[in-house]
Design a protein that fits this description.
alpha/beta; Rossmann fold; 8-stranded mixed sheet; 8 strands; about 15% strand
Length: about 300
């Protein structure tokens, strides 16, 4: 029997978050889906579309911006009842100024992909407002995708200091390509999830990559030519070569991570070796370093310095 009845999704007004909300509404037992969104107008529009598409008025808006930890804390403080599961879906390439620092001292790209979600989960746990599962949107870039020219992220020491330098951007410098930085940031979030699984064994912490997915809006803030390629040209050509799949397939992975007990807490699941699509496998079988508990704990402790 499905014990998950209420779900909060960040970045829920478009792309994979929106599609996950739509698919969740058809799951037996789901009676409330919280749409975590930055913009009230876009949130209201998304809610109207979801009610029309599903025939179910079970969607509730929560205004939160994962790139702003104060916004996240305020959103949690306003919650009056717990949720069973949280889908940490929001992210992207960090807006027009990905390397600029937030008031917490981390880069915009790190805040939107990791720190905001860390603050959200810690606040929910502290206030006993999550009961079952936390699912983090992982990425194959965390292990590298050579076929797509995405190198494997390089960690020299996996120390607390190195993970802090990833968070504040000093590891990369202000001129770094956001796409090169993205994989290392996603790797840091994945290691944090694994550490949290050991810290809180009564909850499930599953990292699940939606895979290379067309129609997402995470690339909207890239420079024009890169945006054109990844969002439009790539969206047409790359599926022909098995390098991208539909937003429906990406969202379906989230649901499998939430409901299928075969996906274990503390593990990272993504596409098979060398590809951003195809069968989902435990990434430990590809990259054993994901199981390094010292690196996991160092990532968590480094992030907590900023939260």
């Amino acid at each position: 029997m499905n014990t998950i009845k209420t779900v909060l999704i960040t970045g829920a007004n478009a792309g994979i978050g929106f599609e996950a909300a739509r698919q969740l509404a058809s799951q037996e037992g789901i009676n409330k889906i919280y749409l975590g969104c930055r913009n009230i107008d876009k949130a209201n529009d998304a809610k109207s579309q979801l009610v029309a598409a599903t025939g179910k008025d079970i969607f509730e808006i929560i205004i939160l911006d994962v790139s702003d930890s104060t916004s996240v804390r305020n959103a949690v403080a306003a919650m009056t009842s717990p949720v069973d599961a949280v889908v940490l879906n929001a992210g992207g390439t960090g807006g027009r100024t990905p390397h600029a620092l937030t008031s917490d001292g981390v880069t915009n790209i790190f805040a939107s992909n990791v720190l905001g979600h860390v603050v959200l989960v810690e606040e929910l746990i502290k206030r006993q407002l999550v009961t079952s599962t936390i699912l983090y949107a992982g990425s194959e870039t965390a292990r590298g995708i050579p076929k797509m020219g995405v190198a494997k992220p390089e960690l020299s020491s996996s120390s607390i200091e190195e993970f802090a330098s990833i968070a504040n951007g000093s590891k990369f410098g202000s001129k770094a390509d956001p796409l090169d930085v993205y994989g290392t940031i996603k790797l840091t979030g994945t290691l944090w999830m694994a550490s949290m699984a050991r810290q809180h064994p009564h909850l499930r912490f599953v990292t699940m990559s939606p895979g290379g997915t067309t129609g997402t809006n995470g690339m909207d803030d890239l420079p024009f030519l890169k945006k054109l390629f990844f969002k439009y040209v790539g969206g047409l050509v790359m599926p022909m070569f098995g390098m991208m799949h539909s937003v429906e397939k990406g969202a379906k992975r989230y649901l499998e991570g939430l409901f299928d007990p075969r996906f274990e807490s503390g593990h990272f699941y993504a596409s098979h070796a060398g590809s951003p699509t195809g069968p989902v496998v435990d990434q430990l079988t590809i990259e054993p370093s994901f199981g390094n508990t010292t690196a996991q704990d160092n990532a968590r402790q480094a992030i907590q310095q900023f939260s």
